[in-house]
Amino acid sequence: MLSKHVNPDRLVADSHDKKNVHALTGSDPNALQHSYGARYGTTPIRKYHLASKGLDAESAYNLIHDELALDGAPVLNLASFVNTWMPPQADKLMAENQNKNLIDADEYPATQLLHTRCVSILADMWHAPSAKQAIGTATTGSSEAIQLGGLAMKRIWQEKRKAAGKSIHEPGPNIVMGANAQVALEKFARYFEVECRLVPVSVESKYCLDPKKAMQYVDENTIGVFVILGSTYTGHYEPVKEMSDLLDKYEQESGNHVPIHVDAASGGFVAPFASPHLPWDFKLPRVVSINTSGHKFGLSYVGVGWVVWRDKQHLPKDLIFELHYLGSVEYSFSLNFSRPAAPIITQYFNLIHLGFEGYRTIALNDLKNARLLSRALERCTYYTVLSDIHRPAEGLSSTLKQATVGMDDNVENYVPGLPVVAFRFSDEFKEKYPEIEQVWIQTLLRAKGWIVPNYELAPALEDVQILRVVVRESFTEVLVDRLLADIIEVTESLMNKASHMHALNSLGTAFTTSAHKHGSMDKGAGSESSGTYAKPC
Fold first, then answer.
1. What is the largest CA-CA distance in the chain?
2. Which helix (H) or strand (E) holds 325?
3. CA angle, corner 94, sides to 299 and 333, nearest 5?
């Protein structure tokens, strides 16, 4: 009788050879110490418990190195916004400084200087009224930075309520954001007891925040609005200027001041270079804080994010801790204490190595490759592209639009956004081949090495599934060509009813992966999904 579930760990344990012990020495005569496998080739290693005796360093390295070969190739990981390549000189700096802890300011004063310079450069790049008056810090990533930006807005709201003799508990604070918000934004609301007001998104709002709808959720208890410069779903920039203008009008009518925190996790290192005239940053007085991920389009390795406030008035003093530690007085306003210094050092390397022109060249090249892939996908007729960075910008004349599309490399003539290509089966394709599931494109591309996610859009549009490609610096035109060829190949194989791929699709089951349950939570152990994008990005 066939089992409904087979435990592979149990199968391996039960299938081992019985150990042959030498009668005189009590040792295993078949166990050999050799340079590559050492003992782990014949003796099982405990996966989930600490072994009583360890391996030699070379054997441990080989064991881990070989198992990690099963990971996907970072250069083919088109699901992630996270940078996967740096020049050899940056790799060298990472290796030289991997043992430094950023929090040890007195011990590593030069590292602290580089950290301070990075904050000043970002403040200047985002047009803070005075880069000297702006204040900020490195974080582990944008998730931590968002928590800090939200906390500052909450604390300022509480101080104002107390000064006015009003309650900070009834009905309590709320924060407004689009339903397309990345899960880190919703985490802030849940972890720090702020009501999360999600604004429904629509096709008309470009799958992200609609400022006019957002105003229906704003009241005197709104601590702020999270506006996203680069939606993780489709790469669209949310209209920061329009949101700011509406809040200006609301304040004039009600007297309630509602600030904006811009989540520029990805766009913070794209918009300043590719769309320098786009109003989104500290040029807008209502924008009080901005976060970004240095390890995304900041082009550093993973482990560094940034949050900057327009001035010290918008970071309450009681969020800053004075530390008398290791012989010095230090000031901390982060959630983490210890953090690696190496990613901050390589961030500074990028800033001085690339400069404005270098970052602009990379951003324009990424957008060019994203436009290329977008147009090619639409021209094959199998797919509809939901992202808009390949479409002419608003305000262009019809004659210029006709001449621009596919012929002009002037980024100003296109809709601003991240170098992201979000696409789905075209309506014509779905009508002709209703039996083909889009998720099989993800699965079959993975078999060729590509990692391209297939997932549902935000609440209210969750019946729409999209495939998404993030175009990073390492995704060159050669790879665009190869990816397109593979997408067309697997799509046409599914269309061909005589192919083995079509037979797989006919099984009607999507590809899944099983994970060992040891130490993990079972289904239902967490809170119910709100529908926001809660996947790694």
1. 94
2. strand 321-325
3. 75
Phi, psi angle pair for 455, to nearest 5°: -155, 170
Reported for 8-14, long-range contacts at CB under 8 A and 24+ positions apart, including other chains, are 9/47, 9/516, 12/44, 13/44
- Residue 330, number of CB atoms within 10 A of its CB: 15
How many Cβ atoms sit within 10 Å of the Cβ of residue 41? Answer: 14
- Give 82-122 as a 3 state SS string: CCCCCCHHHHHHHHHCCCCECCCCCCCHHHHHHHHHHHHHH
Token look-up 């107390």 returns: 162
CA distances from 477 to 369, 377, 472 (A): 6, 14, 11
**What token pair was written down for 319?**
């969020």
Tokens of 31: 């166990």
> Residue 182, SS3?
strand
Q: How far, in Å, CA of 188 to CA of 142, rounded?
A: 12
Q: How confident is the model at residue 23 (pLDDT cuts 50, 70, 90)?
A: low
Q: What percent of the chain has pLDDT over 90?
A: 72
pLDDT confidence of residue 316: 94
Tokens of 532: 């926001």
Before 171, cis peptide (omega within 30)? yes
- Contacts of 305 by beta carbon, 8 Å cutoff, 6+ apart: 138, 139, 140, 141, 142, 143, 144, 145, 265, 291, 292, 293, 294, 295
Distance CA 247, CA 392 (A): 29
By residue count, the chain amounts to 537
Tokens representing 112 are 């602290």
The model's pLDDT over 113-127, given as tens digits with 9 standing for 90+, comes to 999 999 999 999 999
Q: What is the pLDDT of residue 41?
A: 55
Burial class (CB in 10 A: 0-12, 13-18, 19+), 175: buried
Distance CA 303, CA 294 (A): 8
User: Residue 144 CA to chain centroid, in angstroms?
Assistant: 13
Give the model confidence (pLDDT) of 321-356 as tens digits: 876 655 555 677 889 889 999 999 999 999 999 999
In this prediction, residue 3 carries a pLDDT of 56
- Rounded Cα distance between 413 and 395, Å, is 9
The phi and psi torsions of 34 (rounded to 5 degrees) equal -130, 165
Distance spanning both ends of the chain, measured CA to CA: 42
- How many other CB atoms sit within 10 Å of the CB of residue 82? 20
- Residue 33: the pLDDT is 44
Looking at residues 198-205, what average pLDDT do you find?
97
Q: What is the pLDDT of residues 237-288, one digit of tens each?
A: 999 999 999 999 999 999 999 999 999 999 999 999 999 999 999 999 999 9
Q: How confident is the model at residue 8 (pLDDT cuts 50, 70, 90)?
A: confident
